[in-house]
From TrEMBL:
It is an enzyme of class 2 (transferase). Residues 74-262 form the Glycosyl transferase family domain. It comes from Microtetraspora glauca. Residues 701-719 have a biased composition (Basic and acidic residues). GO terms for molecular function: glycosyltransferase activity. Residues 364-626 form the Penicillin-binding protein transpeptidase domain. Its EC number is 2.4.-.-. This is Transglycosylase domain-containing protein. Gene3D superfamilies: Biosynthetic peptidoglycan transglycosylase-like, DD-peptidase/beta-lactamase superfamily.
């Protein structure tokens, strides 16, 4: 007994000397260990009073939680995360998992307070004699505190400080742990610890780790799996099974240590431990895809991601919005219709292959809501250019991750047609047009600033030198006659046409202002399929424009639901929209799509072709669904026109809107609308739009419309002058 007392006194003297020498550095926290050293009449209470160690509230920001994107039917399509984590309540964690983690990390967790005096004193004496923190001795509560501080650290310096081997940090941990013990029950602390801990292999929290390691929920873990995950917590970077055999071997060794400890504490029998130790690791390596590149529908995913990152309703700064998306634990329900998406993908794949240089892209939009039902492209999304992957969102505008878009061609003639109907023209109204159009003077066309933008030095022609003649709103549209639409635009006013287009949601894909020149009606502005499809959906909804919509509902981590409604306005009178639709229906039966044919239900639309087949489009709609298809070479349509290129295993000479985009649209609609009851268009008010108010069309068969494209895309292929905007080789842009 005398020898034992002498040893204790020696240890006590050593501790006291070290405390005195290192007090300024915060080493006084070691005094809490003194009662375990023995004797001297020093108590925990007296030491706390001397050191003024009192509970201190810990700021516990919400843990980073993964965000999940769902399609319209509630099925996952993507996920975003800063840390792959899914927090679960304690009753969703198997009892054996709870026992395993307590056994190996803090077996007296339910018996002690904020810290385990026995373990802490042993560790602190060791730390004091070695001059640093070489042993942990931390309770589960202290470990939770350390994880919280580390997770909320924003800089590398703060992160390093959160795990620095200093006793001053341990003192702070103790203060916070004391407050946590007062604030929560033991079960709640354990639950929070299991949800915050890192287990390796990119898995944060027990639920994500269970799925990653074993492909099951935390509630389903068995003894072997629980011991494995409990063992991984101590040094997850050293036992990460993804990093190779040596790491997996260390994890098995650590698992077996946990099993031995559980047997020692009589949580399991020695026989159960021995049997469990014979099992293989069983690591499943379940993928944890994150971000749009890993999504089944990457282009739609990119649209949603950028919708959140650029909308201030989701945060005042981009950093806040990115954290909202990647850390918020959101469930985002979207407008994507999986069947319609598959229909678009199948149709595109039929005509344009993933390895082709030109890229076809398509967007489907629901009239009356603006809901984007599909976004598809011929190329896969990614950054591997050797695999011909597309690194930007070719289906959308720059604001939603897209590029500069493609010139929309004669799809823009629709806006001139609608403007003419708004200004009182009737179906039979028209005028004689020549084989070419040339402005009489610079004042023939004025932009919306009142500036002269006409160009009398440049002539626009019809496709393949098509002849002139008398054209009406109907025949000029069906034949897509350039000279007719240039004349019509001059008559109704360039600015009025621009205003109509803007009312239909038209804006350039690159985010710049619309270019307002005389060839505006021929579509020299670069567009994206979502914008064009939404514009045509306006006619499908009888003149009601609805902004493109991808998100219908967001549920946050606390279950709060935020619903999003369509943002719509009446862009044009219903009767005018009905009249325009009536004319555009003829494109399938008497115009540029007559060789492709209809879809067995009411449909209307317009082809579009750039000069020399640089870009081609088709935009069409029914009352139930609208779609726009673009085709162009992202390397630069001027330098790489479509003629002569291979698409879908076939080399094309000339390419028009009805050559590839039209058939893609048709096949898409046949698949997307399968099982959807057909809705009819509203017939036009013939008392208002029938006949003509000016010179009427001469009587002749509608099919004798020379100046069309002779089986191609009408007058879409005529010449124009876009004033060099968007040209990729520095020369003048010639478009339809």
């Amino acid at each position: 007994m005398q020898a034992q007392g002498k040893a204790q006194a020696t240890a006590l003297g050593t501790v006291l000397r070290l405390i005195a020498a290192a007090g300024a550095a915060g080493v006084l926290a070691a005094a809490i260990a003194l009662p375990a050293v023995g004797g001297a009449g020093i108590t925990v209470k007296s030491v706390k009073e001397e050191l003024n160690i009192a509970p201190e509230d810990l700021d516990e920001p919400p843990l980073p939680e993964k965000t999940t994107l769902l399609d319209a039917g509630g099925k996952q399509i993507a996920q975003f995360y800063f840390q792959n984590r899914e927090s679960v309540p304690l009753d969703k964690i198997s009892p054996i998992m709870r026992k395993a983690i307590v056994a190996i990390e803090d077996f007296r967790f339910y018996e002690h307070g904020a810290l385990d005096l026995e373990g802490t004193s042993r560790a602190l004496i060791k730390n004091l004699t070695t001059g640093g923190v070489t042993q942990g001795g931390s309770s589960i509560t202290q470990q939770y505190v350390k994880q919280v501080i580390f997770n909320k650290a924003e800089t590398q310096e703060d992160k390093a400080a959160a795990i620095a081997p200093t006793l001053s940090r341990k003192l702070n941990e103790i203060r916070y742990a004391m407050a946590i013990e007062k604030k929560y029950s033991k079960d709640e602390i354990l639950n929070r610890y299991l949800n915050i801990a890192y287990f390796g292999a990119g898995s944060y929290g027990i639920e994500a780790a269970s799925k990653r390691f074993f492909g099951k929920h935390a509630s389903e873990l068995d003894l072997v799996q629980a011991a494995t995950l409990a063992g991984a917590v101590q040094n997850p970077n050293n036992t990460d099974p993804n990093l190779g055999k040596a790491y997996r071997d260390r994890l098995i060794t650590r698992r077996n240590t946990v099993l031995d400890r559980m047997a020692e504490l009589k949580i399991i029998t020695l026989e159960e431990a021995a049997k469990a130790k014979t099992k293989k690791l069983g690591y499943k390596d379940k993928p944890i895809p994150g971000g749009c590149e890993e999504s089944e529908f990457p282009y739609f995913c990119l649209y949603v991601q950028n919708e959140i990152l650029h909308d201030e309703q989701f945060g005042k700064s981009e950093k806040t919005r990115r954290e909202f998306l990647n850390r918020g634990g959101l469930t985002i329900k979207t407008t994507l219709n999986r069947d319609m998406q598959k229909a678009a993908e199948k149709a595109i794949k039929k005509y344009v292959h993933t390895g082709d240089k030109p890229v076809a892209s398509e967007a489907l939009v629901e009239p009356g809501t603006g809901a984007i039902r599909a976004m598809a492209a011929s190329r896969k999304f990614g950054t591997n250019h050797k695999k011909n992957e597309m690194s930007f969102n070719v289906v959308a505008d720059a604001l939603h991750g897209g590029g500069t878009g493609f010139q929309a061609g004669s799809t823009f003639k629709m806006f001139t047609l609608v403007t003419a109907l708004k200004e009182g023209m009737k179906f039979g109204d028209g005028f004689n047009t020549g084989a070419t159009f040339q402005a009489n003077g610079y004042s023939d066309f004025k932009n919306c600033k009142g500036e002269n933008v006409g160009d009398p030095t440049t002539a626009q022609g019809n496709s393949e030198g098509g002849a002139g003649g008398f054209r009406t709103l109907e025949t000029g549209t069906w034949g897509s006659v350039n000279t007719f639409f240039m004349t019509l635009e001059r008559k109704v006013g360039l600015c009025d046409v621009v205003k109509t287009a803007k009312d239909f949601g038209i804006k350039r894909a690159d985010g710049q202002k619309l270019r307002e020149f005389q060839t505006f009606t021929l579509g020299f502005n670069e567009m994206d399929p979502v914008t064009v499809a939404s514009a045509y959906a306006t006619l499908g909804a009888r003149g009601k424009y609805c902004a493109p919509m991808a998100i219908t509902e967001i549920v946050d981590r606390f279950g709060k639901v935020t619903a999003f409604k369509p943002e719509c306005k009446q862009a044009v009178e219903e009767e005018i929209a009905d009249a325009a639709t009536n004319i555009l229906q003829g494109v399938f039966t008497k115009g540029t799509m007559r060789g492709v044919g209809g879809i067995g239900r009411d449909a209307a639309g317009k082809t579009g072709t750039g000069d020399q087949s640089r870009t081609v489009w088709f935009a069409g709609y029914t009352p139930d669904l609208a779609g726009a298809v673009s085709l162009g070479d992202p390397r630069g349509p001027v330098r790489y026109p479509l003629g002569g290129q291979v698409m879908g295993g076939r080399t094309y000479g000339s390419v028009f809107g009805a050559t590839i985009p039209g058939p893609i649209w048709k096949d898409t609609m046949l698949g997307a609308l399968k099982g959807v009851s057909a809705t009819s268009f509203v017939a036009p008010d013939m008392s208002r739009f029938g006949g003509c108010t000016q010179q009427c069309a001469p009587r002749r068969p509608a099919h004798d419309d020379r100046g069309g494209d002779r089986g191609g895309d009408g007058g879409d292929h005529g010449r124009g002058n876009g004033r060099g905007h968007g040209n990729d080789d520095g020369g003048p842009i010639i478009i339809d």
